[in-house]
Amino acid sequence: MSEKVHNLLIKESALITGDGKTFLDKVNIGIHGKEIAYIGQEKPSGITFTHTLEGKDKIVLPGIINIHAHGIIPGAPLFSSASAPLPANQAEKNLVTHISQGTTTILNLDGFAHPGLVSQAMSTWPINLKTATTHYPKAYIAARKIDASGLKGQGEEKLEKIMENFPDIVVAMGEAGSGATLGGGVQDYKFIPEMVKKETGIAIDEYQARKLKEAVLGKEITSNFFNPERVENILKEIGLGNYSPEWALDKISQTVLPSFDIALEALEEGANIAKKYKLPFIVHTAASSMSKVLEISWLGNLLVAGHCNHPSFDMKEGIELIKRLKKKGAIIDISTFNTLDSPEREKELSFFFAILEAGLADVISTDYGGGNHSPVLKILELAIDQKVVTLPESISLVTRNSSCAVPRLAPSRGVISRGATADVVIVHRHKISRVEDIIIEGIPLRQDKDINNVMKMGQK
């Protein structure tokens, strides 16, 4: 970092406080040290501000709090499958991309990441970074049945030791399940394409893999679903017409099913652990896990039902599930996935917007669909333009509500008020996906050349 600004005045900007309703215009916002020191129409007195930012044509927002991200911790095993870590430079690029898009707090959901690695990443990059964990027995068993290459040469870290040694880093349980062990998206863009390439030499994409998987096992993942005629048609459609339906049943079953039942059991085991430690439990919510998620909804607001807009649901089914979970007090998360680059973009956006318009979403996160994610502010910009949700309402779903969903993740963050931590995102007034400045704990990140070099990544 270069010279750090500790006294900053943002002059005459619009302001969204994060409370879900407040929009103020031509407001002065003073930052002193790491805190918000002043909010008002008049120029503040009694504080000397050494630096100023002009707020004309800009909106000040609380920094985004993302409670569901993968692939951001160098050296950490990926997903519930404990797959091999990404190259360190790719994990760092993923993390910086989140920052450049306005994220100032992020929760790592690769639950086999050692908290020490998370601490290292936080010391390297200027962001509030914490982790969830899945260091418990049945989660390990599920991982080892499907991959666990990221645990090669390692023993099993004991949950009790993790909790004792890293109480400030481990703030949630999860992601329990995930598309890796419960037949979801990681199977579609990683394991199934890898298997098909190895067996046939033919490359298929994640959408073709999903079609084949669902033709063989259905959205709820069961071998009883198999219908040879249906599978034969899909094989022809995706360029595998020389292979038989029985071949597909055998290979898809071998790829998807070994971890499935034990991963469902791991959801129940994790729920009991979450209750013991009084930690939020973030779970993979999809057609395949729906019944088990409903079973553990006795957790109430400790249950965070991740990505309830999962593409395995049809819209009516997904919304009905959400309503049932909300009656139990569960927190409903919807994710941006890689929706804007998806060939099913309009279908996925319609589902996302329907949940928003019905007022059923509690928080919005990104997840890591297809190894990538669509920027939160870009998705919200589209939703606001279509009058699905108001600007103040939408911002609360990625700031204050996220802070409340995982209380130990971002205390004193998620709102802009006097005394709050000065995590601030400044966006263009007429295009909120255009991030102009990011301030974390009072420090503008444009002073940091590493962040400044990638700020444009957030505008894609």
Structural class: alpha/beta
CATH architecture of the largest domain: Alpha-Beta Barrel
Domain unit count: 3
- What's the CATH H-level homologous superfamily of the largest domain? Metal-dependent hydrolases
Largest sheet composition: 8 strands, mixed
Shape: globular
Q: Count of helical segments?
A: 17
Strand content range:
15-25%
Radius of gyration: 22 Å
Walk me through what this model shows.
By secondary structure, this protein is an alpha/beta fold. The protein has helices spanning 88-100, 115-124, 137-146, 159-165, 178-181, 185-200, 206-217, 228-237, 245-256, 260-277, 290-295, 315-327, 345-357, 376-385, 391-396, 400-405, 449-452; strands at 7-16, 23-32, 35-40, 51-54, 58-62, 64-69, 103-108, 128-133, 170-176, 281-284, 303-306, 331-335, 363-365, 424-428, 431-440, 443-444. Strands 1, 2, 3, 4, 5, 14, 15 and 16 form an 8-stranded mixed β-sheet that branches. An 8-stranded parallel β-sheet has the order 6-7-8-9-10-11-12-13. The model is unreliable at 454-460 (pLDDT under 50). It folds into 3 domains: 7-62 and 413-459, Urease, subunit C, domain 1; 64-183 and 259-374, Alpha-Beta Barrel (TIM Barrel); 200-256, no CATH class. Strand 14 and strand 15 form a beta hairpin. The radius of gyration is 22 Å and the shape is globular. The two termini are 25 Å apart. The protein has 17 helices and 16 strands.
